Amino acid sequence: MSGSSSADDKIKAERILSFLEDTYGGISWWPGDTGEVMIGAILTQQTRWENVKKALALLKEKNLCSIAAIHTAAPEDIENAIRCTGFYRMKARRLIGLAAYVMETCGGIGCMETMPTKELRAGLLSVNGVGEETADSILCYGFCRPSFVIDAYTVRIAACAGIKTPRPGLKALFESVLPENTSVYRQAHARIVEYAKERCTSKRCEECRILALNG
DNA sequence: GACCAGGTCCTTG
DNA sequence: CAAGGACATGGT
Predict the structure, then answer these.
(1) Section A152-160 average pLDDT
(2) CATH code for A34-142?
(3) Is residue A162 classed exposed, middle or buried when 0-12, 13-18 and 19+ CB atoms within 10 A define those classes?
(4) Which one of A29, A58, A113, A168 is least enclosed by Cβ atoms within 10 Å?
(5) pLDDT digit string (tens) for A89-132?
(6) Computed from CA positions of residues A184, A186, A191, A196, in that sequence, does the dihedral angle turn out positive or negative?
(7) List of protein residues whose beta carbon is under 7 A from strand C
(8) What is the per-residue pLDDT for A4?
(9) pLDDT of residue A2
(10) Residue nearest to nucleotide C9 (CA to C1')
C-alpha cells in the first residue's frame, strides 16, 4: 500500500488501454486534411461530433472549410454554417483568430509542418480559444505529432479506474505507458471515447474500476 | 422541461 | 489557485 501512486496509476492505465485494444481493435478517426482538423477541433468543443459533421458539411458547401477561406470570410457566413454546434458566435471568433495566426503569424500550414512539436504546441496554445485538448487534437490528428489528447472522457475513465494523478498529469501518464507513436496515440484516444460513450456513462462506473484493478 | 455534449476564457473570493 | 459563470444549439 505504500508504493508510489504514480507506478500504481501506470499499471491501471496500462490495463485499461490493453483492454480497449482487445475490445475495439483498430479504429479510424478524423479523416480530412490539416485545415479541416483544425476547424473541427474548435467546433467540437463541448459539442457532440454529429453536430460538428453537419457544420463541416455546410462549410464545405460554401467553400469555407479551409483555414485560408476562414481567414477571408465574413464572420456572419461562418456563424451561419456552424450554428448547429452551439456557441457559434464565440466559435466563429475563435476560428477567425486561429486562421489569422496560421496565415499571418506562421505564414500558412506548410510553414507549421516544419516546426518542432514543442514550439508548434506553444504557438497553438497562444491562440485565444485553443486550450490543451484542442491543441493536442490538432497536433495528433492534423499534424501527425505524437501528442496524447486528454478529454472529458479520458478524465472520467481515469477517475472511475481509481487513477489518482490529477488532470494536468494525465497526458504525461498516458504517454509514459504508450510507445511514442502518432497512430498509437490516435487509436488509444479513439477507443477511450468509444468506450466511454457506450459503457462508462455514470461518473463512477464499476467496470472501469474492476478493469483497472484486475486487468 | 431538465440535463448534457470529445472546452476555454474571464471574473471572483 | 479554486470555483463559478458565460458561451448556445440540438438530442434524449
Answers:
(1) 94
(2) 1.10.340.30
(3) middle
(4) A168
(5) 999 999 999 999 999 999 999 999 999 999 999 999 999 999 99
(6) positive
(7) A 46-48, 50-51, 83-91
(8) 62
(9) 45
(10) A86
Overall average pLDDT of the A194-213 stretch: 89
Answer for the pair A101, A134: CB distance below 8 angstroms, yes or no: no
Instruction: Please state the pTM of the whole predicted model.
Output: 0.96
Query: Nearest-CA residue to the C1' of C10?
Result: A84
**Quick one: which of A39, A145, A34 has its CA closest to A96?**
A39
Amino acid A130 CA to nucleotide B10 C1' distance, rounded Å: 15
Is any atom of nucleic acid chain B found less than 7 Å from the CB of residue A175? Answer: no
Alpha-helix residue ranges (DSSP H) falling in chain A:
5-24, 34-43, 49-61, 67-72, 75-82, 88-100, 109-113, 117-125, 132-137, 152-160, 167-176, 182-198, 206-214
**Residue A3 confidence (pLDDT) above 70:** no
The answer to whether the beta carbon of residue A19 comes closer than 7 angstroms to any atom of strand B is: no
